Amino acid sequence: MNKTVLITGCSSGFGKLAAKTFSDKGWNVIATMRSPERETELTKLDNVLVTRLDVTDAGSIKQAVDEGLARFGAIDVLVNNAGYGGHALFEQATDEAIRAMYETNVFGVMNVSRAVLPHMRRRQEGCIINVTSMAGMMGLPNSSVYSSTKFAVEGLTEGMAFEYKPLNITVKSVLPGAYPTTRFNANTDDDLNAGDDELSAHAQKLHAHIQGVVKQMAEQGGAVADPQEVADKIYECATSETPVHNPVGSDAEMLAQMKASLPQQAFLDQIAEIALPADMEGISA
Ligand SMILES: NC(=O)c1ccc[n+]([C@@H]2O[C@H](COP(=O)([O-])OP(=O)(O)OC[C@H]3O[C@@H](n4cnc5c(N)ncnc54)[C@H](OP(=O)(O)O)[C@@H]3O)[C@@H](O)[C@H]2O)c1
Q1: How far apart are CA 246 and CA 228, in angstroms?
Q2: DSSP E strand boundaries for 8-67
Q3: DSSP label at residue 261
Q4: DSSP assignment, residue 103?
Q5: How far apart are CA 12 and CA 96, in angstroms?
Q6: Catalytic residue numbers?
Q7: 181, 14 in Cβ contact below 8 A?
Q8: Which end of the chain has fewer CB atoms < 10 Å from its terminal CB, N or C?
Q9: 3-state SS assignment for residue 16
Q10: Average pLDDT over residues 114-138
Q11: Dihedral sign of CA atoms 236, 240, 244, 247 in order
Q12: Ligand 1, atom 33: nearest CA belongs to which residue?
């Protein structure tokens, strides 16, 4: 019998590519999104159920899980992909914006996992893959709040990996580097202008520098990074034995190697040399 995957955030980016990848490989796919009425591509695929799921809305999660189980009978793999980023200094993010990001990036992962786990425990098998970020490996300047959400999910993943291993449920994360998905960073330029002139100028300067570094790192791997790599890594995690944490992309893989080979402060000192403009001081005391 075909296996079934439920993926969140399938309207674009990695989620949509992952839905197509699993479908191509013969899986049943519960492709969830906030506005399924707008979807025109995934709805044409036979073994794909396109349905509404907002990770912040418990009712919509239950409905999508029930609908998926009624159609396909089981959920073998859950991919918690829905999420969003943003570029701003911590002080430029409002309390409301921070809480909203946590509702999606952190509590959303918990909400959907909580809805699927009892089913996986009953079947005594399953796999949960959380899409985090290289920002969950190190605190990225100008993305401190986003980094904190991805660190939270990295911690959740690791703790759950221990908790659920004895129950034959694997829990893993995929940590993408920077990829040119359509909307991931689309609505963030305004945030960089928030606050007083000093704060805004500091944010703009950091942003310009970091964008240059990210581009350079991504290009070191050859052509501009292809988001399909992330969909393929998700599929690999669902179908073979992989580590708990799975960086993907030349930039994320390089960071993971640096982090593994250096003491923590030495790693941060090296990152400061790269991530901060030459006239700004490092972060060592
Ligand atoms: N692109 C990168 O460089 C990058 C790097 C590292 C990690 N990531 C992570 O990868 C994941 C996917 O991002 P992407 O790059 O593919 O960006 P994307 O194209 O913007 O896709 C994000 C998806 O999340 C959905 N979403 C947002 N809030 C939601 C909610 N409350 N409930 C359900 N779905 C929601 C969006 O749906 P709507 O259409 O309804 O808005 C969209 O389908 C995110 O977790 C992101 O943090 C991205």
Answers
A1: 15
A2: 28-33, 48-52
A3: H
A4: I
A5: 25
A6: 146
A7: yes
A8: C
A9: helix
A10: 98
A11: negative
A12: 54
The identity of residue 175, as a single letter, is L
Q: What is the pLDDT of residue 284?
A: 52
Whole-prediction pTM = 0.95
pLDDT digits (tens, 9 = 90+) for 185-224: 554 566 888 999 999 999 999 999 988 887 777 667 666 7
Tell me how many degrees the CA angle 173-238-23 measures, rounded to the nearest 5: 120
In 3-state terms the chain splits into helix, strand, coil percentages (rounded to 5) of: 55, 15, 30
What per-residue confidence (pLDDT) applies to 285? 46
- Cα 16 to middle of ligand 1, angstroms: 10
Does the beta carbon of 85 lie inside 6 Å of ligand 1?
A: yes
Distance between Cα 282 and ligand 1 center (Å): 32
Centre of ligand 1 from the C-alpha of residue 263, in Å: 32
Task: Please tell me the distance from the alpha carbon of residue 54 to that of residue 34, in angstroms, as a whole number.
Answer: 5
4-188+225-249 architecture in CATH? Answer: 3-Layer(aba) Sandwich (3.40)
Residue 224, Cβ density class (10 Å: 0-12 exposed, 13-18 middle, ≥19 buried): exposed
Q: Where are the domains of the chain?
A: 4-188+225-249
* The pairing of beta strand 28-33 with beta strand 4-7: parallel
Q: Which amino acid is at 151?
A: F
